[in-house]
Amino acid sequence: MSSIETFLQMVKESDNIVFFGGAGVSTESGIPDFRSVDGLYNQKYDYPPETILSHSFYVNHTEEFYRFYRDKMLCLTAKPNTTHYKLAELEKAGKLKAVVTQNIDGLHQAAGSKNVLELHGSVHRNYCRKCGKEFDAEYILNSKGVPVCDSCGGQIKPDVVLYEEGLNQQTLEDAVYYISHADMLIIGGTSLAVYPAAGLIDYYRGNKLVLINKSTTSMDSRADLLIQAGLGEVFGQVRV
Q1: Phi, psi dihedral angles at 2 (to 5 degrees)
Q2: Comparing C-alpha atoms, which of 73, 89, 75, 99 is closest to residue 189?
Q3: What is the predicted pLDDT for the residue at 34?
Q4: Is the peptide bond before 80 cis (omega within 30 degrees of 0)?
Q5: What is the pLDDT of residue 37?
Q6: How far apart are the first and last CA of the chain?
């Protein structure tokens, strides 16, 4: 039995699945990953992306932050791919209980997933730091320089967790809850290098930990099933 056949059998037998995903889930939708060879870390900017996407850089170089953010983080024409749609189907069928994602692109929701826990926030939510008014991603994309509130003139900030910022405590607690109760945990498209998100897998107590990633991760030895393939190739074979 191939590893993908084993995976499909596990999905069939499970009814409390949690999916934990990273940038690799969205690369097939054309959204660049951070760490791959042609990812964001190899693009030419005056500063490395990790510096630009930090809280202190946002505070001290807000205009430069937004130049990069509009250019590289707002991929608003991207559409959900096979993996997004299959996860939504599994949820609709009552088998998948939650999607825990490190992505900020909103593609899981666009594909129809309802219970999506966004560890790092979303580009689709932006708020005025002065009056709290909310704005969508298009407003940010079409603004110039530092986007300001059309009501009070306050500065707008994306609801995205930047480096040096803490994760939303409620989202973390919800993720821990779902992962610790899951009978199957599928981890896909993440290098499991970013903490505290990567530490969430420590809460899984079952024996169906599946790791799907093209490259090796530091957690490979902990997986009950390891599949080194593209997510679309694997999820494309799921029949709900």
Answers
A1: -75, 165
A2: 99
A3: 60
A4: no
A5: 47
A6: 20
What would the two tokens of residue 177 be?
A: 């809850």
> In this structure, what token pair is assigned to residue 37?
């060879």
Give, for 99, the enclosing helix (H) or strand (E).
strand 96-101
Catalytically annotated residues: 120
Q: Residue 125 and residue 8: Cα distance in Å, rounded?
A: 35
Joined together, the tokens standing for residue 48 give 């490395």
Percent helix, strand and coil across the chain, each to the nearest 5: 40, 20, 45
The answer to whether 215 and 193 are in contact (CB under 8 A) is: no
In a domain, 61, yes or no: no
Predicted confidence at residue 238, as pLDDT, reads 97
Q: Is 130 domain-assigned?
A: no
Helical H runs in the chain? 3-13, 49-52, 55-60, 62-68, 82-92, 107-110, 137-141, 169-181, 231-235
Residue 44 is predicted with a pLDDT of 63
Domain boundaries, position 206: 1-31+79-120+166-240
Domains of the chain: total: 1
Average pLDDT by stretches of 10, the chain with 240 residues: 94 98 93 60 71 95 94 92 98 98 97 97 97 98 97 97 95 97 96 82 96 90 95 95
Residue 102's domain is classified under what CATH number? 3.40.50.1220
